[in-house]
Here is the input.
Amino acid sequence: MLQQLDVQQELEDVYEKALRRNPGEPEFHQALREVFDTLGPVVARHPEYHEQAILQRMVEPERQIMFRVPWVDDAGVVQVNRGFRVQFNSALGPFKGGLRFHPSVNLGIVKFLGFEQTFKNALTGMGIGGGKGGSDFDPHGRSDAEVMRFCQSFMTELHRHIGEYTDVPAGDIGVGGREIGYLFGQYKRLTNRYEGVLTGKGVGWGGSLARTEATGFGAVIFADRMLATKGQSMEGQRVIISGSGNVAIYAVAKAQELGAHVVTFSDSSGYVVDEAGVDLGLLREVKEVERGRAADYVARRPGSRLIQGGRVWDVPCTVALPCATQNELDVHGAEALVRGGVVAVAEGANMPTTPDATEALQGADVLFAPGKAANAGGVATSALEMQQNAGRDPWSFSQVASRLETIMDGIHDECANTAEEYGDPGNYVLGANVAGFTKVADAMLAHGVI
Ligand code: GLU
Here is the structure.
């Protein structure tokens, strides 16, 4: 066994080198730091990881693709965006992970997401590697025709890099059913192949029932299982949720189904407090059908309020589900949650909690589920979609939902058991990182130096 000191030095060296090699990518650095901080004991137990430079290889994506995406808007003006696909790690299966269309997208963001995705996908146990992609294109305010032309241009480059056994993208922020449809149509046209190359497809043409709901459902199931370790459940909890995309919407749905009282959601215009309980039907109508704003909900829901410029974490709750975006919950937000009596936090989004906020929550004995475990239900259901495509056998909603529940139970228990095995019971961050890392590392060892 390596000396503890050597292990820490090794982790520090790999981390420092990764920082130098990837300058100006703070989100990627943060994702690396968060994983490396928990790997000391596992690397100490496995000198072969050090000997075979597993860490050095793991922080370097297998392949990174950046490309020009030119398209013509409705006014006839030529627009140019940048496209990305980072194929991070295929030790466990074809690269798998979403595409994000948002003005904030850059290479560092895509790398952080791809790195996290690798461990998340490993935790599902479903034979999928990790990747991520996207563009700085902003679909907001664009017509359907503009979104279609953008997606067609994006896929005209991307198609040569993906395939059902190579890399299977899906949705993420700004990429939903409409975008997946346009992307799929162009892939099919260019390759002359009808295959399960994307997930999140429409239910009538290869998509899986319950895929849209899966991430939000899974995060709430995970929170419920965490609460069970303390003799509680979601029933009767007062829940605050950030975001209003498909993760947030179906977290609201599942929390309500399990008997919780959900009082908030948010979008970039502010957060809504609805003490009577969020009206799921109205929320879906405003966000999914009308593509509207929080104000459109408040205008039709007496007693609800839109608060602009504040932070949703100030609303007292017992369970908080950050379901919007990275770094939305900082240390001040975490302190507010603790003051408000929070018992459990489960990340529906990817890396929504800053490192010092995570520390503050864990330090106050709040149950804390990192996104790579709590939001893995989405990608796990994508793997179920791949399975249905391969077997030409569409499953019922309840079949998919019950598989999802079993998968989330499994991820919860694996994280909890790993944390216990490594001497830190209840530390789901450690449990998720170590369990995910070990699966990827062992497969990489088996495959030799590649
Ligand atoms: N974008 C989702 C995630 O962060 C889903 C990815 C997928 O289904 O491939 O896990």
